[in-house]
Amino acid sequence: MKNNLLITLTLICLVSWQCSPDPSTAPATPDGVVIPSRINYDESSRQLMKELAPQIVGTWTLRQVSINYQKNTYFHEQAKISKDTTIQNLATLTIVPAAKPRTSPIDTRRGEYDGTIQYAGKSYPIQFDMLANAEWLVSKKGPQTFFLFDFRFPDGMRIPEPEDTYLKNIGLVGDNYSLETTIGQPKMIWRGLNRGVERIELIKQ
After folding, report:
1. pLDDT value at position 33?
2. Tens digit of pLDDT for each residue in 66-110?
């Protein structure tokens, strides 16, 4: 399900790339007729990823995690979530550029990141790969990127621990997100797309 959603979002980005920009930002003739223009999606994606990299890398506090309760959901029942819930200062997230490229040749249109999430005294490896939102590239509206946020455990058998199981059960890890941020500001907003996490406010330390 989550992989299908990410593929769908990517296809939407590619289709949207063919569209004209917002009339308010597109060039116009002297009599006010909007001149349709196209952008180079690949180059614009590369530029966005370059701009976002220093903004994303660092240590972040998950100051507010807002969860929409999903009735009769096994995972929420396991996490003992029975109503809409906001968790304060849930965890600490450290983000670094991916140690090894996950594409060959390297796809510079993507932002590839590794890191750790610290929760309840435990630290777990994470990863996510950002894809540009075509709407943002065309009109600077909407979130800048989409990505799947997940654990990055080594290959092989592993027995889950209560702490990482909880992060999965509340929908924090293993979901697709959109990302909104302002360059130079120590804040990011992630919005979950399908597992109950409505909004995460992250503050840079």
Report:
1. 46
2. 999 988 889 999 999 999 999 999 999 999 999 999 999 999 999
For residue 62, which of 152, 153, 160, 177 has the smallest C-alpha distance?
A: 177
- Residue in the block written with tokens 């290959």: 155
SS3 call for 181: strand
Return the CATH class of domain 42-204. Answer: mainly beta
Tokens of 38: 């196209």
Task: Output the six-digit token pair for 46.
Answer: 């590369």
Q: What Rg, from alpha-carbon coordinates, does the chain have?
A: 19
The three-point CA angle 12-190-136 to 5° equals: 40
3-state secondary structure 55-119: HHCEEEEEEEEEECCCCCCHHHHHCCCCCCEEEECCCEEEEEECCCCCCCCCCCCCEEEEEEEEE
pLDDT in tens, 147-200: 999 999 999 999 999 999 999 999 999 999 999 999 999 999 999 998 899 999
